Amino acid sequence: MQPKIFLKILTIIHTTLTAGLLIFAIFAYYQNQDFIARMDRQSLFTYIVPIVAAAGYFLSQWIFKKQLEAITEQEQLSLKLGKYQTASILKYAVLEGPGLLALLAYLWTGNALHLVIALALIVYLFVQRPNAEKIKRELPLNLEEQKQFDELI
């Protein structure tokens, strides 16, 4: 896989997932007539959404790190890029799930806490946007692969 094509595909996947969550957040906000800024201790979502969001955040980092640790310097550049793409998509998906849960909880309950959690996850997902420098920093590339990566981007 060529680095330029790899980066383009990964950027499209990331942008699609982020935009999907953002569009759903806008839809949920305009669809819901309530904006409750108090804790509803009777709602199960009040407890589940923050726990799932925190778990998703930490799990996404852990999975990504473990996937990158499995990449050896001896592998070819195309294989390294493929593994990085898989790790990134898993990280995005693990963040997307809690974001959707938080937005659904907001849509159903109108509790602002769920919307705030969803927006925080969307912002974090947006910050995870792939770029060439970040990929070079996170992948174990030798000097020849770094040069090849730079020439092909």
TrEMBL record:
UniProt lineage: Bacteria, Pseudomonadati, Bacteroidota, Flavobacteriia, Flavobacteriales
Top-rank taxon: Bacteria
Keyword Membrane belongs to the record: yes
The keyword Transmembrane is assigned to this record: yes
Annotated protein name in UniProt: MFS transporter
Keyword entries, A-Z: Membrane, Transmembrane, Transmembrane helix
Organism: Pricia mediterranea
Listed transmembrane segments: 6-32, 44-64, 105-127
